[in-house]
Amino acid sequence: MFQMAYSYYGFLFMLITGGVPTALALYTAEQKALGWVWFKRLSVVFILVGASICIFSMNYSQHISAWLGNPDLSFFIRPLSLALFVVPLLSLLRGYLQGLECYTAIAVSELIEQAVRVVLMLFIAWLLMPQGTVFAAGISQIGTALGGIAAFVSLLIFYLYTKRDAPGYAPPRSRSRITDGIWFIRSSLIIAMTRLLVPFSDMLDAIIIPSRLQTAGYDFSQATAMYGLLTGMAVLIAYMPTIVTSAISHTITMKLVMAWKERLIEQFDARSREALEIVWIWGIASCIFLWFYKDELSLVFFKTPEAAVLIQWLFIIPLVVGLREITTSILWSQGNNRISLIGTIIGISIAALSHYSFIPLEGLNIIGAVIGILLMELIITVINIIGLKRVVSGMNLGRLLLHTLIFLVVLVPTASLTRSIGSQIHWGNYSSLPGMFLYLLLVCTYLLIRYRQQHT
Prior knowledge:
The protein is mostly helical.
């Protein structure tokens, strides 16, 4: 139920923000003096739209819950609706600061947001538990809005007390509002369509997967639980390594924008290829990690081995999604937004058809949903790579494959060794943690050494 409500929230969040925060980041990277002016203008729009959708969701929460297939979801949707007023505004401010390359401030604000959110959610759930699990878990979602408020205030304080006094700040240059406005509309619409499709796909999954599982013979409770096992456990773990690749995409995009704007094509290509190589190596290391530590990850995070099989099926996700994210960033840096949009539409369409067709088949069921997720990510990634033919063709693929082979030969025994080391430590479900940390430490050390060598 938590995952189903969040899929609805995610869709509306993307409906409000669209591609505007990303467009603002790209605009600010090119026109730093005008970024703050457009942040203030766009904030007014975000406040009005966010408030309207917040009120709509709260007033019609019961109808929305019935449409999603579970009347009790209204307990989750009402508190989450409050976040639709503040979190989009927070996203816009982060987009502006991304354009200024204030990554530390953004990272700290994300830590503040999640810390406040999680602590409050757990406290509220514990406090209201005597009134019922569904009620307690639902009302606890108010922590999402309060976490967003805390993060927004921290970022606003950071900007007001540091950036205006920073060297290089200058009053905005005279520029046509109409010209800039048309650019924002054109850029944000295409980015919005691409990004909006992902939460839309999540919301489709929340409807299709439980429904088709019931067609396969499971009752309502079993189908909902299986959907939660996939999206709230296995998918969560499989996508976790992509935090690193998201950070790489986040930080490199602005540098690529500037290189492309100044027509430094060789520098643009070199940085793009370097990012692709790092994401490739990290993705392979993460795939091996998920394959070997699937049981331990399921036990450490969820105190149950049930998610292990699904994690193993999804082991390729860190590599594919990492490449999808970095290739999308490179394409957007070139101003080429259409390729990712086309790939996302095709990928989501095939994923929905796969869910509908495969899940009811005997012997597949929930694995049919996994197949749909993998197909979607693979299709988007392949289409993005085709769109970057010039950049990719300039890579030394032979050397990369050789290094990959050596990496695999070294990492597979390393994963097995670190896993056996962890098994010697008797910490219950947490016995595997030392082995996991040792494996990740070795991988990160390798990446740091290799990165430093390329820059010396």
